[in-house]
């Protein structure tokens, strides 16, 4: 997200929440409120590690607007691969990052990144609401780098769900909005991605990076083989060096792990994976 400014965070969050409000309402109204005896049984099952019960319990907390407990129980089920909980956790995190005015930019960035991570995990397990949310993020380009092909792909995949399914109508609308900005060839490429998509549980590194990561560039590699140096955003790094870069109006810590002829491996503050930066051709 460019700078993670107050306005852009709120705009991105409102865009997703408004686009999908009808889908969310559909989910909540169609899940019956649990009576006390049933809730007690669900709580006991959730405590014992039953992921479906954890998801149901989280939904009940969400219905009563207890967002802290909802996030806690969605996180438990999401960490075990439960797609619905992954989608709901991602949605909660993005809403928290975008609509909480008191958050520091670095904190909002980290929360948004985690939200996108969970949405991507759920979308790859064919959750249509997560697919629609991911399509929205790619279309508006505030939480992720804008990518019309990915917006079309995820929107189209969401639209394949039954018309009454949460996310189906939103996905269709986002796909059509992306198509209006695309060439015929790009639409054909996007359709190929739809055909190639297979439901799967992604590897840890698959969730996409937030938009500001693309501003971190490797511009040069020099020095002897036993002591190479890398130039990243006009700052020189040796292997093992850590520096602060000013990225889109905020300070980001970068730690250089390895330097090779054409690329470097770094750890970037806010990401949970090692990032490869390549020299531009």
Structure description:
This protein is an alpha+beta fold. Helix content is 53%, strand content 14%. It is built from eleven helices and seven strands. It has helices spanning 6-19, 21-30, 36-47, 51-63, 67-78, 83-99, 105-124, 128-140, 148-159, 168-179, 184-196, and strands at residues 218-222, 229-232, 235-238, 242-247, 250-259, 263-268, 275-278. The strands form two sheets. The chain has a four-stranded antiparallel sheet with strand order 4-5-6-7, with no helix packed on it. Strands 1-2-3 form a three-stranded antiparallel sheet, with no helix packed on it. Strand 5 (250-259) and strand 6 (263-268) form a beta hairpin. The longest helix is centred in the middle third of the chain and has 20 residues, at 105-124.
